[in-house]
């Protein structure tokens, strides 16, 4: 099978022919149809984060495909079923996080395309209990971005406590942000979209943002404060400056939800203001299997639009450059059919 492999953090990915993997008793072998390119895959391939994956590895955690083989212990999915392989490859299933609806915080989790091989390949192995069924009505090319960009921002909007009458700022209208904006609108919030490219600002308008700010030429905190400040700001741009701006755009009692993970990302905040303003700063990491099932259901009901372009896996290195240069509409998806 064909796979895109990271051999070295400083080298381009290599397209390799690998033997078809054998599913263990608890695993399924998935024939990948669609595999989304999340900015996280670029961080993974470059070793950007304090905990690094070990090369060689296959990135990709927005994998969607059909179960072709299943181990003897797999009970919840059947052959021929379309499933998603998300970031949470598996968790222990028993710790306090796992049993209280926070499996994404499990200390013993594995992550697709990071600590275990992911979906930048014609086939991928996955844990039978942690793949999420994709409803028949959903195009696999849409299901792929929903499996990380969708579920992550759906969760972030929940964590932000967005609701009718709240004002939510979405910083970065890329793969994640274009969906965050839609979930915030579905929650009933007034929305402020922030980006730094004309195309993304146009996309935000098209998706119905109530206010659109260009961080290149506008003072995001000042413009947001003119509106009364943001009850929540969801930080999705790969930029420390954007975190500072999102923090300063909050109104009293507001919540900054950190999602983006720039290399060496830091945010220094003034204690005095944070205390006096009752500001909350919270990190948000992907979402659970249940969150993803809800994301798929919303899409099946026609409530969300996935803005994506399809590419060939062979072009993965050019695709990384395009994402870094802001040259993509929102999400790139490898078509492996
Ligand atoms: P992306 O490249 O598709 O989107 C980033 C967007 O931010 C782009 O539209 C870009 O133009 C915009 N931007 C850049 N500088 C900006 C600025 N100063 N102000 C406002 N906008 C700006 O990336 P993505 O795939 O959406 O991922 C975003 C980040 O989220 C990455 O760091 C990724 O690793 C991280 N991520 C986190 C989680 C999680 O669970 N916490 C999950 C998935 C991705
Ligand atoms: Zn991702
Ligand atoms: Zn656990």
TrEMBL record:
Residues 8-334 form the Enoyl reductase (ER) domain. It is an enzyme of class 1 (oxidoreductase). It catalyses: a secondary alcohol + NAD(+) = a ketone + NADH + H(+); a primary alcohol + NAD(+) = an aldehyde + NADH + H(+). Its EC number is 1.1.1.1. SUPFAM superfamilies: GroES-like, NAD(P)-binding Rossmann-fold domains. SMART domains: PKS_ER. Pfam families: ADH_N (PF08240), ADH_zinc_N (PF00107). InterPro entries: ADH-like_C, ADH-like_N, ADH_Zn_CS, ER, GroES-like_sf, NAD(P)-bd_dom_sf. Keywords: Metal-binding, Oxidoreductase, Zinc. PANTHER family: ALCOHOL DEHYDROGENASE 1-RELATED, VACUOLAR PROTEIN SORTING-ASSOCIATED PROTEIN 11. This is alcohol dehydrogenase. It comes from Kitasatospora arboriphila. The gene is adhP.
